[in-house]
Specification:
The complex is a heterodimer of chains A (about 325) and B (about 260).
Chain A (H helix, E strand, L loop, with lengths): L2 E5 L2 E2 L3 E2 L1 H13 L1 E8 L3 H11 L4 E6 L1 H4 L4 H14 L3 E5 L2 H14 L4 E7 L5 E5 L4 E7 L5 E4 L14 E4 L12 E7 L13 E5 L9 H10 L3 E4 L1 H5 L20 E5 L5 H4 L7 E6 L12 E4 L2 H15 L1
Parallel strand pairs in A: 1-4, 1-6, 4-5, 5-11, 6-10, 7-10, 13-14, 13-15, 15-16, 16-17
Antiparallel strand pairs in A: 2-3, 7-8, 8-9
Helix pairs in contact in A: 4-5, 6-9
Chain B lengths: L1 E5 L2 E3 L21 E3 L1 H17 L2 E7 L5 H9 L4 E5 L9 H15 L3 E5 L10 H9 L2 E12 L2 E7 L3 E8 L2 E5 L11 H7 L4 E4 L1 H4 L7 H4 L2 E8 L7 E4 L4 H11 L4
Parallel strand pairs in B: 1-4, 1-6, 4-5, 5-11, 6-10, 7-10
Antiparallel strand pairs in B: 2-3, 7-8, 8-9
Classes of the chains: A alpha/beta (about 325), B alpha/beta (about 260).
Chain lengths: ~325, ~260
């Protein structure tokens, strides 16, 4: 069976991201998964056990300052060389900002089609995508080149399948043209050990109704009790209650968790666009007419400052 | 500084949006078409740089005839002129071929700086800035929440999932911006009147030296096979809190195995 290249997404703090495990699981249906680690020195070594656990038969690694010290262009160059050499059956990347950007450059280098926000990929290359904020399901195909797709987090359940991958270090030959955008500093702003927003199976979000930044502690407390990530509506972010990277909606992150909890969020289209493909939605809002209730599987009309602390207490009792 | 801002006309994301049943492209005919929201932030950023450093701001749009409405709207914010790439053969183009056309147009405009929105609200694909930069052989600084211009040196704070990165490059470069970067101005009445007289140059594929077979459905590198509307979600139980709302909520979560 042909190799399927899976470009690994990982963070220093949490290691291999869940979307990578989803991609490895998907790749096993299409061929033999090979993980591609493009990162800082020693990245592949640190990640190999986890990648093997989910079926990576091989790991290609390109590491170091040449790769990691610049914005995506060197990664695309290395990947293009690898694709040319191994002629994979497909190339999978995460549908994150960086994943899409690497894929974009690869597509131009190879004059190859690209499909983003893919939630399913059949053996014949037919991809399923969600469009227009989850309101439309699209079947599509790359018609020029190999299937080059970016996979949306939380598209499938990652399943382990043990393998013992060998690591092959790639020779890095990036040109000056790939080094035009230099990363001079990386600053971590995310606090605590909560799961990453787009990958979390539970997301608890607060909106304008939360009232102020301090009150977001309530949202965080419920998120922590449910093992979830914290999100915020655009209204809450614009009011300065919570940082922008946690914004869920048309101009923020798209999330698709098992459970989405909306607290003090009216449910404007802007917000719904980022969360309406969530499996189960619950909402607390004092306005009985709020559009969020049209989506909610369970809604509580009431004061979130009463309902949420009581819910938190009840969860603690049951634990 | 010679700045070009990429502007895309999209169907209003606040209304019902569809793909066409006949050729699977975005239905622009029945939709209320507007400037892609993120592009307004790109225009604002360009105008601020011009105000601080001098130069000229040009709007570049690829789209059908009706995109003229969005071009005039963009010009009413303050840019100097616009270039509209319009050609019937472009209908059905994919992202890869679109980037080829935009890069060809940019090749004629001698931009020091190309600014665009981080993504469009219709496709949300986020690939265009890097595709264009790859074709032009220039730097791409994408996902900026802050942009600083110091002579020919650009520095951006790039929003990431963990926080942000500080990334620098020299001009010429492509920069894409998120909506956290500024607060776009509203067009003034004077601006709206002035926009009607600003030059809008139209370019065809022939003007750009791109063959019709390289674009549109013929040149597309991917195809939509079919599309279906997902049935709208229907709301479930809704209770009014009478002192037990929190407990009832947890009971629901427990039946769904979340607690």
């Amino acid at each position: 069976m042909s190799e399927v290249l899976v470009v690994v997404e990982a963070t220093k703090e949490f290691g291999v991201k869940k979307v990578t495990l989803e991609m490895l699981t998907l790749a096993r249906e299409l061929g033999t998964p090979s993980a591609v680690v493009l990162g800082g020195a020693g990245a592949a070594e640190a990640l190999s056990a986890k990648l093997g656990e989910y079926g990576a038969e091989k790991i290609y690694a390109a590491e170091g300052e040449e790769i990691d010290g610049y914005l995506v262009a060197p990664k695309a160059t290395v990947l293009a060389e690898l694709v040319g050499r191994v002629q994979p059956a497909a190339v999978l990347l995460a549908s994150s900002q960086e994943g899409k950007e690497i894929a974009a450059r690869l597509a131009v280098k190879l004059e190859n089609g690209i499909l983003t926000d893919v939630v399913g990929l059949a053996a014949d290359g037919t991809a399923t995508q969600v469009a227009f904020a989850g309101s439309t399901i699209v079947k599509s195909k790359v018609t020029k080149g190999l299937p080059l797709v970016t996979v949306r987090p939380n598209s499938l359940n990652p399943a382990p399948a043990a393998a013992t991958p060998a690591v092959e270090q790639l020779t890095v030959s990036v040109s000056d043209a790939d080094k035009l955008a230099k990363v001079v500093e990386r600053v971590a702003e995310q606090k605590g050990s909560r799961p990453e927003l787009t990958e979390a199976s539970v997301v608890v979000s607060g909106g304008r109704g939360v009232g102020n930044a301090d009150n977001f502690k309530l949202v965080e407390e419920l998120a922590d009790l449910l093992g979830g990530a914290v999100g915020a509506s655009r209204a809450a972010v614009d009011s300065g209650f919570y940082p922008h990277q946690f914004q869920v909606g048309q101009t923020g992150k798209t999330v698709s968790p098992q459970l989405y909890v909306a607290l003090g969020i009216s449910g404007a289209i802007q917000h719904r666009a980022g969360m309406q493909t969530s499996k189960t939605i619950v909402a607390v809002n004092k306005d009985a007419e709020a559009p969020i209730f049209e989506l909610a599987d369970f809604g509580v009309v009431g004061d979130l400052f009463k309902v949420v602390p009581q819910a938190a207490e009840e969860i603690r009792k049951r634990k | 500084m010679n700045i070009v801002v990429l502007v895309k006309q999209v169907p209003d994301s606040g209304a019902d949006r569809n793909l066409r049943p006949d050729d699977n492209t975005v239905d622009r005919g029945s939709a209320n078409n507007v400037i892609n929201e993120m592009d307004e932030y790109a225009i604002e950023e360009a105008l601020k740089i011009k105000e601080a450093h001098g130069g000229e701001v040009t709007i570049l749009t690829m789209g059908p005839d009706r995109a003229t409405e969005s071009i005039r709207k963009a010009l009413s914010m303050g840019p100097d002129k616009a270039v509209h790439v319009v050609d019937d053969a472009l209908h059905g183009s994919c992202a890869v071929t679109t980037s080829k056309v935009l890069a060809a147009a940019l090749g004629q405009l001698n931009a020091d700086l190309v600014i665009c929105g981080a993504e469009s609200t219709d496709g949300r694909v986020q690939v265009m800035p890097h595709m264009i930069a790859e074709r032009l052989g220039v730097a791409a600084l994408t996902g900026a929440r802050k942009l600083t211009v110091d002579g020919g040196t650009l520095t951006v704070e790039r929003q990431t999932e963990e926080g942000y990165e500080v990334v620098t490059a020299s001009t010429p470069a492509v920069v894409s911006v998120w909506d956290t970067i500024n607060e776009p101005r509203y067009p003034s009445f004077k601006g709206i009147m002035a926009a009607k007289k600003k030059p809008v140059q139209t370019l065809s594929l022939g003007d750009l030296g791109v063959a019709p077979s390289e674009v549109g459905f013929d040149g597309a590198t991917s195809a939509v096979l079919e599309h279906t509307k997902r049935p709208p979600r229907s709301g479930g139980a809704k209770i009014t809190d009478e002192g037990e709302g929190g407990v009832k909520l947890v009971e629901f979560l427990a039946t769904e195995k979340f607690v």
